[in-house]
Amino acid sequence: MEFKDYYKILGVERTATADEIKKAYRKLARTYHPDVNKEPGAEARFKEISEAYEVLSDPQKRAAYDQLGRRWQAGEEFTPPPDWAAGFEFSPGRFSTEEAADFSDFFSSLFGNFTRRASGGRVRGEDRHAKIVIPLEDAFHGATRTITLRVPDLDAQGRVSLREHTLKVRIPKGIREGQLIRLAGQGAPGSGGAPGGDLYLEVHFDSHSLYRVDGHDLSLTLPITPWEAALGATVKAPTPTGVVEVKIPPGSRSGQKLRLKGRGIPSDPPGDLYLVLEVVLPPADTERARQLYRMMAQELAFNPRQELGV
Amino acid sequence: MEDDVLTGSIVGYEDVLTVEEFARACHAEVRWVAELVEVGILAKRGHDQAAWRFCAADLACARRAARLQRDFEASIETVAVMLDLLNEIDRLRERLRRAGLDADG
Predict the structure, then answer these.
(1) Which candidate in A182, A207, A219, A276 is best for mutational testing of the B interface (most B CBs within 10 A)?
(2) B6, CA 20 to 30 Å: which among A144, A188, A199, B20?
(3) Contact between A191 and A164 (Cβ < 8 Å)
C-alpha cells in the first residue's frame, strides 16, 4: 500500500495550524463536493480530501500521523509499524463504517478500527445504500437481476475491509427512476444477535437508444415525411410493448407531440408515451427527386419567411 | 442462501417510511429528522411524530443534507439555504436537458 501525504492533498505545509487546515479543506470542499460539482472525478477527489481532513483535523490522529510522516514520502510503499499508535487514543470519526470503507487502504490500516460504531452489546446493523442501473425494459416486464456490491466488513479488531456481496433481486414491473427497493436485513449485520440493517437500492435506468424517461412518462422522436405531416396519415410507431399504429393529423408540424395514453411505464397510475414529431425531408439525390422539388417550388406559393417581413 | 431471489418493498413517491426507519436510513437520530422538518428542509408535518411518513425523495434530500452538514461543518439553517440553491440548479439543468441543451456544453 502507498503512503499518503495528507498535507499535500490539502495543499498545506506540515507546520499548518488547525485553522489553516480547516480553511484549506473548506476551500477544496467548495470546489470538489459531489453535491456541488457534478464533474466526473470530483467525487473521488473529494473522498481523498475528506480522508486527509479526517486525519489532520483531529489532534490525536494528526500527531500519530506526523510521527509516521517523518519517515515516508507520498506514494512510497508503506506498512504500518507494529504498535505504531501506542500512546494515542483516537476518538471515533465523523464517518459511518459504510462511508469510511471508501477511504484508502492506507487510512483503514491506520485508523480503520476507530470509525464511528456503537460500542458492544446488541446493536442493529447499519442501513446501507447503493445505486443500481437497469435497462428500461425491466420496468415493463419485471426482471431478476444479479447485483454485486462492495460492502464494508468489520473484522474482530474492528478494522474495515471490503468484500463482494452478490444478491439476486426481483425488479418489479412498473418501477420508476429514483424509486428505492428496500431489502430488509440485507444491510450491515447486527451484533449480539440483533437484526441486520436494511439495504436500499436506488433505481436508475440505462440511457435508451429510443426512449427518454421523465418520471413515469416516456418520449420518442417519431420521424414523418412532409406529406404525412401535411395530409395526415396512419403510421407505425414502436413502443416498449410492441409496434402500434398512430394517426398523424393533417397539418402536423415538427415538435408537435402526440400522447399515447397509458403506454409509458406501467406504474400505478401508468405513464404516457409522447411521440415528438419530426418532419424529415426526402433527399434530393436523384434527378426525379430534384424534379419533384422544382415542381413544388413552382406550384406552391410558399414563403416560410413571411413573418420575418422578407 | 445467496441464490434466493430477494423481493424488496418499494419506497417511491408515497410516504411509507416511519420516522425511526427514516432516521436509521440516514444514520441519524429522530431528533435530527425533526430539525429538518422544523427548518423546512423536509415538508412540514403534524405534531404527532409517530404518524410521520416519508418517501424516496425525502430520503434523497435528507441524506444530501447530512452530507452537506458534515462536510461543510454547516449549521442546519445554512444547509437549508444550500439545498434551496442546489435544488434550483438541478431544476434549471433539467429544463435545459429537456430543451435539448446541455448546461456545460
Answers:
(1) A182
(2) B20
(3) no
Contact between chains at A198 and B27 (C-beta distance less than 8 A): no
- Which residues are within 8 A (CB) of A82 and not within 5 positions of it... i.e. 6 or more apart? none
Chain A closest-CA separation from residue B38 CA (Å)? 23
Alpha-carbon distance of A180 to B1, in angstroms, equals 23
Q: How close is the nearest chain B Cα to the Cα of A176, in Å? A: 8
Q: What is the pLDDT of residues A119-148, one digit of tens each?
A: 567 889 889 999 999 999 999 999 999 999
Its ipTM equals 0.86
Of B3, B5, B70, the CB nearest to A94: B70
* Whole-angstrom distance, CA of residue A157 vs CA of residue A142: 42
Proportion of chain B above pLDDT 90, given as a percent: 74
Chain B residues touching A94 at Cβ < 8 A: 70
Nearest-angstrom CA–CA distance, A80 and B86: 41
A106: which 3 cell numbers?
492506507
**A149 in contact with chain B, both atoms CB, cutoff 8 A:** no
Which residues in chain B have their CB less than 8 angstroms from residue A166's CB? 2
Residues on chain B bordering chain A, Cβ-to-Cβ distance under 8 angstroms: 2-13, 21, 24-25, 27, 56-57, 59-60, 63-64, 67-68, 70-73, 86, 98
CB contact under 8 A, A180 and B11: yes
pLDDT in tens, B14-47: 889 999 999 999 999 999 999 999 999 999 998 9
